[in-house]
């Protein structure tokens, strides 16, 4: 187990968000970290994690797609995305 130092205002906001979504701050942080690790593996592959090799065109397309979905109201709450990913991957 490790300890993180987090700005108090950020923590307070996370605590409010976690309460609204019936999760703990620990679960919120852990699920977020899992999600960015999964995205990292999808973009860079299993063996490469150097940010210098990101295809800028791919990154721009990802942004455009995400922004379009946001504008159309198609976004899902982060905990729901994590839950769906875990279910699809067979994780608990």
Overall, the morphology is: globular
Determine the structural class based on helices, strands and strand pairing.
mainly alpha
Number of strands: 0
- The ordered string of helix (H) and strand (E) elements is HHHH
Total number of helices: 4
- Approximate strand percentage: under 5%
- Computed over alpha carbons, the radius of gyration is 15 Å
State the helicity in percent bands.
Answer: 55-70%
Instruction: Describe the largest sheet.
Output: none
Distance between the termini: 19 Å
Overall mean pLDDT score?
Answer: 79
List low-pLDDT spans: none
General description of the model:
The chain is mainly α and 92 residues long. Helix content is 66%, strand content 0%. Helix 2 (25-44) crosses helix 4. The mean pLDDT is 79.
Brief rundown of the structure:
By secondary structure, the protein is mainly α.
Give short descriptive properties of this protein.
about 90 residues, mainly alpha, 4 helices, about 65% helix, about 0% strand
Secondary-structure map with pairings?
Layout: H1 8-20, H2 25-44, H3 56-71, H4 78-89
């Amino acid at each position: 187990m490790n300890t993180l130092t987090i700005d108090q205002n950020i923590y307070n906001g996370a605590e409010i968000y976690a309460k609204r979504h019936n999760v703990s701050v620990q679960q919120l942080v852990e699920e977020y970290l899992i999600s960015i690790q999964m995205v990292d593996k999808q973009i860079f592959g299993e063996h490469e994690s150097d940010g210098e090799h990101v295809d800028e065109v791919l990154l721009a397309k990802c942004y455009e797609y995400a922004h379009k979905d946001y504008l159309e109201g198609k976004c899902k709450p982060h905990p729901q995305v994590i839950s769906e990913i875990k279910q699809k991957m067979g994780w608990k």
